Amino acid sequence: MPDERSGRRRRANGEESRRKILDAAAEIAGERGYDGTSIAQVSARCGLPASSIYWHFKDKDELIAAVIERSFDRWLAAFTLPGGDGPPEARAVDLAGRIGKALLDTPDFLRLGLLLTLERRPEEPSARRKFLEVREIAHRRLVGIIGELAPGLAAGQARLLAVYAMSAADGFFIAREIGGDSVDLNGLFELHARVLLDAVARLAAEHPDG
């Protein structure tokens, strides 16, 4: 029994150390970007020695990839269409509001990912690949949600709308980064949901056979 308790404590301590490291890395990368982040800075911010960071992560690139993945997991949890038989508009607006709030609460995924995506490097960081990988997961999830809201829509139309929706969300996020609190991100996402539903109706009417 003592050995079992000791093992649980070690696991809990390891998880807490990992959380502290990821929190510190997210803060620094948000302030300084990918290139401006170093293991030494993360060590100083989280209060753990560099050896502890290297025990959890092979290098800075793997650490930043983990920051992106953790933030994405929290963000993706909002990508669930509310159940029930309510009108599509109410369900879509509710979903959009939760996605906007998730971006405000966990912006690291999109902030770091967009920075890495826009950069061109001789050797692609694994953090950039991780962002593109998880973004594709979000795209597929959104295609499914659009299909659920508008079951008569063709698959190609749903994919087109999903790309459009995510592109607009990128723009909203950048506008918020530029304008700060003067930009109502939740309001933009609510408006976005209504515009998307109008686009769904137009596509379905113009191409009834897909």
UniProtKB/TrEMBL annotation:
Q: What is this protein called?
A: Transcriptional regulatory protein
Write the record's keywords in alphabetical order, separated by commas: DNA-binding
Note the PROSITE patterns from the entry: HTH_TETR_2 (PS50977)
Q: Which organism is it from?
A: Amycolatopsis vancoresmycina DSM 44592
Q: Which residues bind DNA?
A: 38-57
* SUPFAM superfamilies given in the database record: Homeodomain-like
- PANTHER family (UniProt xref): HTH-TYPE TRANSCRIPTIONAL REGULATOR RUTR, POSSIBLE TRANSCRIPTIONAL REGULATORY PROTEIN (PROBABLY TETR-FAMILY)
Q: What is the lineage of its organism?
A: Bacteria, Bacillati, Actinomycetota, Actinomycetes, Pseudonocardiales
GO molecular function ontology, one term from the record: DNA-binding transcription factor activity
Q: Which InterPro entries match?
A: Homeodomain-like_sf, HTH-type_TetR-like_transc_reg, HTH_TetR
Name the domain of life this protein comes from: Bacteria
Pfam families, per the entry: TetR_N (PF00440)
Q: Which residues form the HTH tetR-type domain?
A: 15-75
